[in-house]
Amino acid sequence: MNDINTSDPEIAGLIKKELQREEQGVELIPSENNVTKAVLQAMGSIFTNKYSEGYPRKRYYGGQEFVDPMEEIAIDRAKKLFGAEHVNVQPYSGSPANQAVFFALLNLKDKFLGFDLTSGGHLTHGSPVNFSGKNYTCVPYDVDKETELLDMDIIKKLAIKEKPKMIISGLTAYPRKIDFKAFQEICEEVDAYHLADISHISGLIAGGAHASPFPFTDVVTTTTHKSLRGPRGAMILCKEEDRLHEKYHSDKKTKDGSAKKLSQLIDAAVFPGLQGGPHDHTNAAKAVAFKEALQPDFKDYAQQIVKNAKAMADDLMGQGIRLVTGGTDNHLILIDLQPNGLMGKGKLVQNALDEAGITVNKNTVPYEPSSPFNPSGVRLGTPAVTTRGMKESEMKVIASGIAKVIKSPEDKLVIAGVKKDILALTKEFPLYPGFDILK
Ligand SMILES: Cc1ncc(COP(=O)(O)O)c(C=O)c1O
C-alpha cells in the first residue's frame, strides 16, 4: 500500500476501512468469499497491462509468450476440477458468461425455460428486466407452493408443452440440491440445450461436496468468485460436440465444411461475439484459485461449508426462525421473516444485522407477497465464514445473534449486544493474518 498511500490517500483510506469492515464483521452473503493473498497478488499483477484478444496461440496482438501459457494453465486446471471437455476462462463475469451462451445457442425471441427469480433463479435466467427476458422468450418454472422445492415432474410437463430450445438449471437463492441429471434427461427428451449455471455451488462441486453436472450437461457456466473462492470473473465449460447440430445449427460450418462444434460456438460467442480483450490479470488469478481448489484441503473446505450451513440452519430453526424448505443442502439459507411479523421487512432486518456486524442480503421468498425492493426474506451463506476457519460452534454464536436481531430489529440495545459478541468472535479468526495494508 506504500504507493497508493502517497498518491491517493482518499482511495487508500477506503481500502483500509473496507478491510477493517471485513475483519471485524461476519460476512454471510452467500455469493461472497475472501480470496487468498495469492489470488489478490495475481489480480494486482502486471498482467493487467496486457491486451490479448483471441485465444492461446491465436491472438490478434503480439507479446503473448507469457499470457498464452498462463491462460492454458487456467483452462487445464478448470478442466481437471470439473471434468469438462472444453473450457473458456475469458468471460468477465457471470452475467456476460450467460449472455454468451444465449448468443451462441439461441436466436432472438427463441423460447427457453428458466427458474423464476423470486423463487431462487438469477436475473439472467429470464427476468423481464434483464437481456434474457427482453431479447428471448422466457417461460419461468417455479417451486411447489407447499414444499417450496423444485418438482422435476412439473418441469418435465412444462418442457414437453412449451418445447423450449434451452433449459437453464441453477440457483441464486434455492437452498437445496439441483438434480442436474434429471434436467439433462428432460432436455434430451425435448431437444433442448441444457445450461447448468453452477455459479453459487461451483466450490462445493470442485471440493466434492456436491456432484458435478459433468459429464452429462451440455453447457455449464460459473462465476469464479463465490464458493470457488477466486477473483471476480466467470468461465464457460462445455462438451466438444453439439448434440443438436442438425436440428438447430446445420448452417454453421467451419472453413473446411465440417459441422461447428459446441465448443466453437461458445468460444466465438465470447470473443469476438461479445467481448474484446480478456482480463489477463483476472485470468491469472483464476488459475491461482483453481490450483488452490485442486488441493486436498479444499475438499475439507467444501464439506465444512455445507456442515456450517446445516448447523446454522438447525440453530436458527431451534430459535423459532422459519427457513424456506425447512433447511439447507448447500451453502445457503433463506429465512422467511413472515412468521415473525416482518412481511416486506427484509430491508429492515438486513440493516439491523449490518449494524450488528453481520452482513446478509434481503431477498424475496417463494410466492413473495410483498415486492423485490421490500421483500420478506433474508439470504445467508457460509462460504466466507468457513474460509475464516469458523466451524459449527461459531455458527451457534452467529445464529443466536441473528435470531435476537430478527426478534427485535429496532432495539438498539439488542443490536449493540450482538455487535459485541460478533466483534469478540471475529477477533479470534483474523481474515488476513500478517496483512500489512493497515500500515
Ligand atoms: C446463478 C448466478 N448466475 C450468474 C450470476 C451473475 O454473476 P455476476 O454478478 O458476476 O454477473 C450470479 C450472481 O449472483 C448468480 O447467482
Write the SSE topology:
Layout: H1 2-7, H2 9-24, E1 26-27, H3 37-43, E2 54-55, E3 58-59, H4 67-82, E4 86-88, H5 94-105, E5 111-115, H6 131-135, E6 137-141, H7 152-162, E7 166-170, H8 180-190, E8 193-197, H9 202-206, E9 219-223, E10 234-238, H10 245-248, H11 262-274, H12 280-294, H13 296-318, E11 322-323, E12 332-336, H14 346-355, E13 358-359, E14 361-363, E15 377-381, H15 383-387, H16 392-407, H17 412-427
Parallel strand pairs: 1-13, 5-6, 5-7, 7-8, 8-9
Antiparallel strand pairs: 2-3, 4-10, 9-10, 11-12, 12-15, 14-15
Bound molecules: pyridoxal-5'-phosphate.
Give the gist of this structure:
This protein has 439 residues and is an alpha/beta fold.
Describe the protein in words.
- The protein has 17 helices and 15 strands.
- The termini are close together.
- It is globular and about 75 Å long.
- The strands form 4 sheets. Strands 4-10-9-8-7-5-6 form a 7-stranded mixed beta sheet, sandwiched between helices. A 4-stranded antiparallel beta sheet has the order 11-12-15-14. Strands 1-13 form a two-stranded parallel sheet.
- By secondary structure, the chain is α/β, with parallel strands linked by helices.
- It folds into 2 domains: 148 residues, Alpha-Beta Complex (Aspartate Aminotransferase, domain 1), CATH 3.90.1150.10; 250 residues, Type I PLP-dependent aspartate aminotransferase-like (Major domain) (Aspartate Aminotransferase, domain 2, 3-Layer(aba) Sandwich), CATH 3.40.640.10.
- Pyridoxal-5'-phosphate binds next to helix 5.
- The site of pyridoxal-5'-phosphate has 14 residues, from helix 5.
